[in-house]
């Protein structure tokens, strides 16, 4: 407020100087025409308008820079500031500010005394410490919560490890029992297979002995059959010879032989004739 009051005082002095310049430079005659007065007022209006506009623009920009500093400091401490534009036009609050300004700057000596007073240390450090303490407390609470959660997770992990170890032990016992059962089953199967093989071997030996005896019988029967066959063949050969001899002694055989002899001679004669005809051709 002191800074704004100082800037406002300077701007008012500037406006006063504009009027003084007009008085000193233009109001030198005793009489003025309407056009001359209008011209002087228009010039004064432009100058005053420019000064007031400059002051308003400067005040707005100054407020922007002030708010920028405040918001930048708030962002460093992760604070979220909010503004209510409607409060800027609250007539009651504006009157309170005006009353405060009048009371605070009514006595010029009081203002000089306050300026000369030693300034207190800024409260920024205290605010920072308070914010840091709050942040530290919050982090400690989160750390305690995380530690508790970590202990819970460790307990659950240990329980899971114990369950896993117990499951492995049970699996090993089960595998051992299954292995023993498999070994017993395999030994039973092996014994059964050995008994089956022994029975098959015994049957095979029996069948071999039976086959050997039957083979010997067959060989003996074959030898006797061969002897009988040779004897029968010999008897058949003697019988054939006897039949041939008896057949040759019959009249039918002799007449047939004579006929065959004549036929052979006739064939020979025909062949000779045919050979002659073939040579002539």
UniProtKB/TrEMBL annotation:
Residue ranges that the Swiss-Prot or TrEMBL entry lists as coiled coil: 129-280
Gene Ontology terms describing biological process: negative regulation of protein localization to cilium
GO cellular component entries: cytoplasm
Source taxon at top rank: Eukaryota
Alphabetical UniProt keywords: Coiled coil, Cytoplasm
Pfam family, one: Leu_zip
Location in or out of the cell: Cytoplasm
Family membership noted in the UniProt record: Belongs to the LZTFL1 family.
Reported function: Regulates ciliary localization of the BBSome complex. Together with the BBSome complex, controls SMO ciliary trafficking and contributes to the sonic hedgehog (SHH) pathway regulation. May play a role in neurite outgrowth. May have tumor suppressor function.
Record's subunit section: Self-associates. Interacts with BBS9; the interaction mediates the association of LZTL1 with the BBsome complex and regulates BBSome ciliary trafficking.
Protein name per its UniProtKB record: Leucine zipper transcription factor-like protein 1
Organism whose genome encodes this protein: Hucho hucho
Lineage: Eukaryota, Metazoa, Chordata, Craniata, Vertebrata
């Amino acid at each position: 407020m002191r800074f704004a009051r100082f800037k406002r005082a300077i701007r008012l002095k500037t406006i006063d100087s504009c009027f003084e310049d007009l008085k000193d430079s233009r109001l030198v005659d005793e009489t003025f025409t309407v056009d001359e007065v209008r011209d002087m007022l228009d010039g004064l209006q432009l100058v005053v308008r420019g000064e007031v506009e400059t002051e308003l623009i400067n005040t707005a920009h100054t407020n922007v820079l002030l708010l920028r500093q405040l918001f930048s400091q708030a962002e460093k401490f992760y604070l979220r500031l909010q503004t209510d534009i409607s409060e800027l036009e609250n007539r009651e609050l504006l009157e309170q500010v005006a009353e405060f300004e009048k009371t605070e700057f009514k006595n010029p000596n009081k203002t000089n005394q306050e300026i000369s007073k030693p300034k207190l240390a800024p409260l920024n450090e205290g605010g920072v410490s308070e914010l840091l303490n709050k942040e530290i407390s919050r982090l400690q609470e989160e750390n305690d919560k995380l530690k508790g959660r970590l202990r819970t997770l460790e307990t659950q992990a240990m329980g899971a490890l114990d369950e896993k170890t117990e499951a492995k032990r049970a699996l090993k016992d089960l595998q051992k029992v299954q292995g023993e059962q498999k070994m017993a089953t395999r030994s039973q199967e092996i014994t059964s297979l050995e008994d089956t093989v022994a029975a098959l071997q015994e049957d095979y030996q029996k069948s071999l002995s039976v086959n050997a005896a039957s083979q010997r019988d067959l060989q003996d029967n074959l030898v006797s059959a061969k002897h009988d066959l040779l004897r029968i063949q010999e008897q058949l050969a003697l019988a054939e010879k006897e039949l041939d001899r008896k057949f040759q002694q019959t009249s039918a055989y002799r007449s047939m032989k004579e006929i065959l002899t004549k036929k052979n001679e006739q064939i020979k004669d025909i062949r000779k004739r045919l050979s002659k005809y073939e040579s002539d051709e």
